[in-house]
DNA sequence: CTGAAAGCGCTTACAG
DNA sequence: CTGAAAGCGCTTACAG
């Protein structure tokens, strides 16, 4: 166990090997020609000495930081936490693999000041936005500053590079699966209708009916269910209308629906089927009777981060990417994508 | 709205004002003498031009990064998430106020490789550990590398600087409150007995009895309740022994206890009192019939971060700090600390 | 293939 | 109070 001596620098390495710093730098970075023999000598020595270049100095010379920022909403609620957490894990993984680090910024909707500090302080090379709003102050600011940005999820702002799961296909497959089993009275409860994700999911829901040659019964479709009251109300009405199944647009809605069904009648869960989207909550939370489409938030973060790094490093990338999902039916599991 | 020109540097400022970079640097940092007049001219110009020093360059010159790392357990479960999230928010707040940024590292118990990368890459000036284990590889590594560290929570490792809430006093007050109301058969369900926090809480529990001149009935005390099964088992036994109250050592235990009581008999919650520790879950989740001691995780993060920065900047600090808590009884709220 | 030198944008002894 | 110069640890034209 060595004691911590003063750090080795590139100059020390050069001195020891009797070459110039230039050569050592080139041998390490792989840029510029260096004889194979010299490269080996350098490599061997730095391995042996466990020399690590000072990334800060490297960054200064290249006007880079090898850091990215991730903006997390400070006001996200418990239901969403696992999603952001998993997403964050994926981002950190991807970053570490390419020797970047992740700087976390919490920000509330209206106030991009935390982000501004980081940008003006030259602390990062790019930013991933984990939640984009319709009028996104953060996104606008970054655009103006010409900072590379990638957003997680779907935003209406098409100028923003964004990565998301294929919610539309997912909802279509889930719904088709139900229709194939002869279920016809399919209810749906969704959140804010102006959210892009809500629209995409409903689009998939409608697609499934269209593909089956059936009409969508809009009287069984509820939007704007953002609070317990509204969801319970919707469930009550759906029960009255004898819905055979309720498709929930997110984890929170699903939890409320299940609770409401249980409270109304313990056996209801055996007669009314529930299907839902599952964003990251540990599986055990959802009842085993629920059919789900599962999204891998960690993977989403991973892909998002890699896309951002590609942009930073000047590689060309697609403006919009869709990730696969997993359909988990009650009888079996089908991988789709 | 200005377009993004090439960044202003200290040399530009010096040139424009007809002084040296040295002077500008001093005027900004406040170190070294500068005439009041010069200082004002500099200040005014950089305000007007919105000049921000390049923190990276400053860092290189001072061998600092103005970043800290926060290590978050990658394997934490849903119950703990709000705690870490709130803690993280507090840390970021405190850091931003002092112009530091926060770099997030996810790490699993055995594997400190993510942390090592960051340290060897010279990316941070210090580290806050949000969960310390008995044999903590991360803590050991940092100690060996002589990196400033502060831990959130109580660790058995007394050489580690740590910040925590005063769990012992909190549990004592909570328990005393119950005893004062004439309750005698007080059950307690706690997690892993080897955890310092569990011991502290039990210590407070016992303190309350001692202060009241009463004996602790150890047959009503359960440790090691880490899974649903064990907790339910404990509840069953406590009901059999006619416990009048159940003190839960954490949110997860409390949730299971409440669920179990409800399942056993819907009215049980009115006869058996439940008291618990509340670490960050949104209040509505816990039943209103539960007496709680509440801890402010965000504040904990805030204080922890400030302590770390004090260390980094060479200020002297206390090795162990205890933060206050809030006792929330069913009838009223008492601030304590 | 290799190196001397300038530069990234700041700080800080040292000498006025 | 102020400035010229060296330095933080790397990279990269430019010239051999």
Individual helix count of chain A? 13
CATH class of the largest domain in chain A: Alpha Beta
User: Would you identify the CATH architecture of the largest domain in chain A?
Assistant: 3-Layer(aba) Sandwich
Which shape of chain A, going by the Cα principal axes?
A: elongated
State which percent range the strand residues of chain A make up: 15-25%
CATH topology of the largest domain in chain A: Rossmann fold
Uncertain segments of chain A of ≥5 residues (pLDDT<50)?
332-337
What kind of assembly state do the chains in view correspond to?
homodimer
Structural class of chain A: alpha/beta
Order of helix and strand elements from N to C terminus of chain A = HHHHEHEHEHEEHEHEHEHHEEHEEE
Question: Quick one: which chains have the greatest interface?
Answer: A-B, 44 and 46 residues
Intertermini distance of chain A: 50 Å
Radius of gyration of chain A: 26 Å
By CATH, the superfamily of the largest domain in chain A comes out as: Response regulator
The share of residues in helices of chain A is 40-55%
**Tell me about the biggest sheet of chain A?**
7 strands, mixed
Can you walk me through this structure?
The structure is a homodimer of 337-residue chains. Chain A is an alpha/beta fold and 337 residues long. Chain A has three domains: 53 residues, lambda repressor-like DNA-binding domains (434 Repressor (Amino-terminal Domain), Orthogonal Bundle); 127 residues, Response regulator (Rossmann fold); 137 residues, Response regulator (Rossmann fold, 3-Layer(aba) Sandwich), CATH 3.40.50. Chain A contains 13 helices and 13 strands. Chain A has a seven-stranded mixed beta sheet, with helices on both faces. In chain A, strands 2-1-3-4-5-11 form a six-stranded parallel beta sheet, with helices on both faces. In chain A, α5 packs across α13 and α8 runs parallel beside α9. Chain A is elongated. The C terminus of chain A is likely disordered. Chains A and B meet through α4, α5, β2 and α6 of A and α4, α5, β2 and α6 of B.
